[in-house]
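Appendix B. Raw example, untouched.
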Amino acid sequence: MHFLKTWFGVRLALVLAMFALCGVGNAQSSDVIAIVGGQLVDGNGGPPVHRSVVLVKGKKIQAVGREGELQIPANAKVVDAHGMTVMPGLIEMHTHLLILGAGDYYQWFPWLERQKRAMEVMKITAHQLLMQGVTTARDVMSPTDESIQLRDAINSGKEVGPRLFVTGAFIARNCWMLSTYYCDKITTPEEGVALTRKRIASGVDWVKAWMGVTAEDLKAITEEAHKAGKKVATHGTNDAEINAAVDAHVDSIEHTGGAASGPFSPQLINKMAQSGIWVVPTMMQGWVYKLTEDFPERVDDPQLKKDFPPDIYKLAHEQTEHPERLQYYFADIHERIKAMPDAWKQLISGISNHILLGTDSGTPLNWQTNATRNELILFVQNGMTPLQAISAGTRWPAMALGKLDEFGTVVPNKYADIIVVDGNPLEDMAYMKNVVHIFKEGVQVK
């Protein structure tokens, strides 16, 4: 009798264990998302995978394959991507969350400080970027404390927006109309080193040096930042700035090719190529003027009215109704519009695999609602293949950030930062306006 009781007890335990295992199996299957049927452009630059399947489990990509070859768990949530394109979330390498396309900075910045609404604006523009398909962004000028707070709030799930990398206030010799809220002024390289240490101690991801810094300043700031494992960005709009940046071993140069001076010397292009420096042309920063001349109605974008509180919309709209009045920003714009395409084509031809998607979004007429797709269009119009343009907006920025092992391509074990586009961007990059589904770290945010 004792033997029978023991035998039945063992059998019951085994049955219960089997039920428990089945329960665990079902639970594991049910939290899998399967993105099925789309053309997969994984960001690596190779040919697309047609009728793909991407399995997402938790925050990570679990598996990638084709329909009929990769088994889809029975209880997976299926996202139908037939007729669409699946690709990595975009990475915006030069945005300004603090500004939202408003033009008159002499009004905008004092108003923000008086109203104490910097964080409110930054939350709005971060959300706009995310809804464009930008799952990671580098903010290169915002108040240091607020940008760090927002970055950490997004990372913890308290706020919605792209994964952020921030520089905080930049380091300069000339702060223009900006207060120390946005810009810290130096007069010597030693002061640059001290400010770099202060900025790093505050928790920034990158350091930005700009506006009047000397070659000696830049070298000192970069050396100090690199000691702490931080990277440095600076402007490189002309030969002198680019040479100084390359000689200082800066990690990225911004706005390259955006001046009215025209093409660079072949020697300078070769120097940039040999250095491996990352280049962020921010083509949209000036090209928005031409887009607005061609279609003035774009300043009445109804999405902006939806996104902004009435008083912010009113102020921003008033400042963009007459862009020709923004002479400090667009004084030589027609000369720039003529010169920029030749410089961009030269950059793309000479250093195409070190050019990054960055738009200067937030600058006048350059809204976070559409800047990234417009930049991708310009990449293709000026010599990139569509596959190169997508890599410039995904894989290469992840490399520049030192995070390619975490995101930037659609491959197993990376974060599931994935967008689904209605149409084929490899045929026409304008399809990037049709972002239907957005996943950030496995969470569907659109």
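End of appendix B.
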